[in-house]
Amino acid sequence: MPTTDKPDAIALLKADHRKVEELFESFEKARGVERKQTIAKQICTELIVHTIIEEEIFYPACRGAVEDDLLDEGYVEHDGAKVLIAEIMNSEPSEEFYDAKVKVLSEQIEHHVEEEEKRVEGMFSQARKAGLDMDALGEQMALRKQQAMNEFERTGLPAPETRSFTGHDLEEGEPVEDGPVTKMADQRDARPTS
């Protein structure tokens, strides 16, 4: 029986999970704007590539073998993370909320990973029980991952693409420091005294 050193689909995805967890830990310990930005870019890159291989290959292969609700939640969780990834990619560590956005992204990813890796009812467990060919999926995913990494190295990271968030117009409100409460206080302070 030949042995292979190529990880199956679940081993590949779990390795990605562990790598991103380590990067989040490194970010928490990092000091200095440049170091934080470097680590945040690595986190964003890893997560964008990870969502690509899950959404293009793994999730479609799981449809019909894994509970639909679990797959649907996976797509929505990815899209929620992509919103924060876009925010992080388009800002600087010196900006307000930067660290908070990375922290919340870390928490969202932690929850997502837990949902996928649960022992009995998790997505990975259900996919294995269904008898999906994890070796073939792993091979496809490893190839796509390498293609995406090579592409992003040449062209830079693309804006994340959402699949479950559609057509909502969001308006950017005023920054927190100039919010309505502050304005009311400023107006009150500017009133003439009698």
From TrEMBL:
Entries under Gene3D superfamilies matching the protein: nmb1532 protein domain like
Region (Disordered): 152-194
InterPro entries, sorted: Hemerythrin-like
Pfam families for this protein: Hemerythrin
Hemerythrin-like domain location: 9-121
Biased composition (Basic and acidic residues): 185-194
Protein name in the entry: Hemerythrin domain-containing protein
